[in-house]
Amino acid sequence: MTALATAAPALDLRTRFYDELDPLLDAYPDVDVVLAVIGSGYMGRAIERHPGRVIDVGIREQALIGVAGGLALAGRRPIVHTFASFLVERPYEQVKLDLGHQDVGAVLVSAGASYDVSAGGRTHQAPADVALISALPGWTVHVPGHADEVAELLHREAAGTGRVYLRLSGQRNSRPHPVDGRLHLVRDGAGAGGEHGPLVVAVGPMLETVLVATADLPVRVAWTATPHPLDAEGLRALAGPAPVLAVVTPYLEGTGAGEVAAALVDRPSRVLHVGVPGETELRRYGTPRDHAAAHGLDAAGVRRRVAAFLG
């Protein structure tokens, strides 16, 4: 495998989110930020300049979503933030009812991703978050891979009305890519069987891992920061009439498989899903890099899976 040339290190996605809050509150007077302690220490300027608009409910994650639902019913645009396991898994009933069933909008912004907070143990890990949110009607899921993408998505969705999940990760790409909801071809078909040769779709911060992993494999590589709803039209155009396709995600393996199958329902296809395995659970701490290697989500692991799939 060859090393991927990179630019200067990209700003951490979570740091960029905190940095954007003060100008965001300036720009959108109907926006409020709702916290459950996590992140409050990084929002001093926003709290000072916008009194009453950064609301910390304490370590009460069900109330976190309930308060957001109440704000939305009152015509406000809540941005809700904590670790993914406390934002999606713990208050899932409130996400389903207080936002979804009430048919009101909010922007849920998580941190921690699947195993970024590996030292925090299983309580701080949430590889199933995207699958859970995607199971509820009316949600859009963004999984950015660069700090600039975070800023663009955050401002766009603050100005909107929908239900949005913005997933932030410690893993990141060295440069930004378009965040228009579409699939974008990053590596073309040269040496990969032409324009409809095997295709690997990387989601969010997995792009550069996938590019390194497949550098010597006969595949094309596409990317998206919005896996749900899936760009079905774009997938059909890139996949061709008899798709050979691998989808690499930084969360639960097979998340989105139904959308991929629906997009290709009329075409004979072979599809591999690579992500955090659902049938195993690590019971050791380690670093995020250790977890990625153990789950086969480092470059070597992704290459093994894709190469075996290609045969």
TrEMBL record:
Entry-linked Pfam families = Transket_pyr
Q: What is this protein called?
A: Transketolase
Identify the residues that the record assigns to the Transketolase-like pyrimidine-binding domain, covering every copy.
11-176
